[in-house]
Amino acid sequence: MIAGRLQFETSHATEFVDVTKLVRQEVHRSGLRTGRVHLQSLHTTLGLAINENEPLLLRDFQRLLERLAPGDAGYEHDDFARRFEITIDEPVNGHAHCRQLLLTGFATLLIEEGELVLGRWQSVFAVELDGPRHRELAMQLDGDFVPLSPTGRGLGSRARAGTDSELIELELARQLMVDPDPVAVPMRRLMEAGGKRLRPKLVQLASQIGPRHDPLRAASLAAAVELLHNATLVHDDYVDESTHRRGRPTVAAAEGAERAIAVGDYYFAKATRLIAEIGNIGVTSTMADALEAICAAQIDDVALRGAFPGDHDSYLRVVRGKTAALFAASCASGALLSDAPTDVVEALRRFGDLLGVAFQMADDMVDFSPSSGKPVGLDIRQKVLSLPLIYAAEDRSVGPEVRRLLAGSLGDEEVGRVTALVTSSDALRRVGDEARGLVDAAVRELESIELDGLRPTLVGIARSAVDRTA
Amino acid sequence: MNVQVLDRELDRLEGLWEQGLSDTYRSYLETVSDREPQVQPKLALAAALIEVGIRLQGLGGHAAPATTLLMGDLCLARASRLLADNASQAVQVAFAKAIEGLSAAAASGKPGRPVRELLVHVFSATA
């Protein structure tokens, strides 16, 4: 399903605004072939009607409305002395509300073969009853959409604007639309809550490097990668006993562990299917290796919580699997998809690996940033492997107290104290330096390969993945 | 069947192998006897890992504790990799669809088809 708003200005008190062309454009842009477009007025003095766009007839309609609900009939709604909570610019418009009652606020139009199903003389009108004003109609399109085309035909209005990230969002929406509600609803909630979409972005960029760039196949792969990533998050949140992610309750917290396991499994399977359906053996194999690395590292991560906060080597081993594996696979598989040369694929794989580790280090630092929007100290509470904690525990001055606190039970007071100790130590600076060093190394991996003008974008992504506060 | 060819594939899963994965594996060997000889053990192991992984996770029943869930996840991931490296596209897709179906049923609170029956059917349907 695609949702949007139709916006327009009216210029008269009563006006029949023919929105047929606007709706038709949106249908064409969406790629909807067979289905429905639902329109809903978002105003109590704006109606909808389907009728003939003939000027004299429209004047007849206007007069009819005026006769049935005259402007000067005296409406209780306009008696401000008897009303509460009226605004200073409250209009005298009882007649307009009454006229709206004679119309409708909703319309559902059928779509066949990509076109609005309208009779020869039918037009779709938004009927202004209290203008002139700025008006909005809510619009939803659902049904069968054509596959997206690189030429722009069949793309939603947002996607046609042309950026790859919009293609990803459209593809994700398309994939979620066909899934059963018990799994799709929680996943949609997670996806709509945000996320940086870094992995699919890397897929798309890397897919532009080889000679066989196909934006649609790249979008399919990118969406599968994002679904896979989110599937792992659903299980991670259950394992970590996290109650919130991206500001919303986790699937496990909202709907229980059983549902979380099912949702994670469903999208794990769906993502692997989508990848298999692309039919590129190298891509399938690369993604399968990454998925296995993620799962193995997750086991190591939990096992290491017994030796919390752990050490640098253990940290790198876990992070390479848990985070960097999918970054590396995203870069490599995008390049493989476009038949990029082997040296390019491998350079991008190394770029993704280094970037993934740096990204995780930056993520660890966010846990100590009060401006991140996330609860500070979450990693400490959950005993998640974190490089700032490892460095703080090694610190000559604060290390002993950090280690003592982490060895005990961690209530609010202890978490606050550990946070303060980490912040006061050199740990965050060390992690920041290390992460930036890794990004420098990642960027160097790109120097020896031909990137067809994509280098600045990849470098920009790499830098911004580390220089962030959320 | 010589299980030495599976050594690499059983990394981290040795305990499960002792605890019943080997029996499940053997039960699938006959099902894949019509495939290329060199891929038969890999395909049988992939199916066995899916069956055991789903059971470990508690899919469709009571949720497994965190560490057991992760072991189940690893089983599924290993199976996915085995299929990616050894199975046709049709088999990969069919296995994924089978897991999608089981997960969707579990999420809906509906009883899913028995896993073994489902996976055996996948093999026969893609022969």
Can you give a write-up of this model?
The complex is a heterodimer of chains A (470) and B (127). Chain A has 19 helices and 10 strands. Chain A is of the alpha+beta class and 470 residues long. The model of chain A is unreliable at 148-162 (pLDDT under 50). Chain A is globular. In chain A, helix 12 packs across helix 13 (342-366), helix 15 crosses helix 18 and helix 18 (427-445) packs antiparallel against helix 19. Chain A folds into 2 domains: 2-145, Jelly Rolls, CATH 2.60.120.460; 160-466, Orthogonal Bundle (Farnesyl Diphosphate Synthase), CATH 1.10.600.10. Chain B has 127 residues and is an all-alpha fold. Chain B has one domain (3-125). Chain B contains 5 helices and no strands. The longest helix of chain B is centred in the middle third of the chain and has 21 residues, at 66-86. Chain A binds chain B through residues 179-180, 182-183, 235, 238-239, 241, 256-266, 268-270, 272-273, 276-277, 279, 284-285, 287-289, 291-292, 294-296, 298-299, 302, and chain B through 12, 54, 57-64, 66-67, 69-71, 73-74, 76-78, 80-81, 83-85, 89, 92-93, 96-100, 102-104, 106-109.
Please compute the radius of gyration of chain B using only Cα atoms.
14 Å
CATH structural architecture of the largest domain in chain A: Orthogonal Bundle
Portion in strands of chain A: 5-15%
Regions of chain A with pLDDT < 50 over 5+ consecutive residues?
148-162
Gap between N and C termini of chain B: 21 Å
Please give the domain count of chain B.
1
CATH topology of the largest domain in chain A: Farnesyl Diphosphate Synthase
Oligomeric form: heterodimer
Determine the fraction of residues in helical runs of chain B and give it as a percent range: 55-70%
Give the number of helices of chain A: 19
Tell me what portion of residues of chain B adopts beta-strand conformation. Answer: under 5%
Helicity range of the residues of chain A? Answer: 55-70%
Radius of gyration of chain A: 28 Å
Coarse structural class of chain B: mainly alpha
Low-pLDDT runs of 5+ residues of chain B are none
Mean pLDDT of chain B: 94
Q: Could you name the CATH homologous superfamily of the largest domain in chain A?
A: Farnesyl Diphosphate Synthase
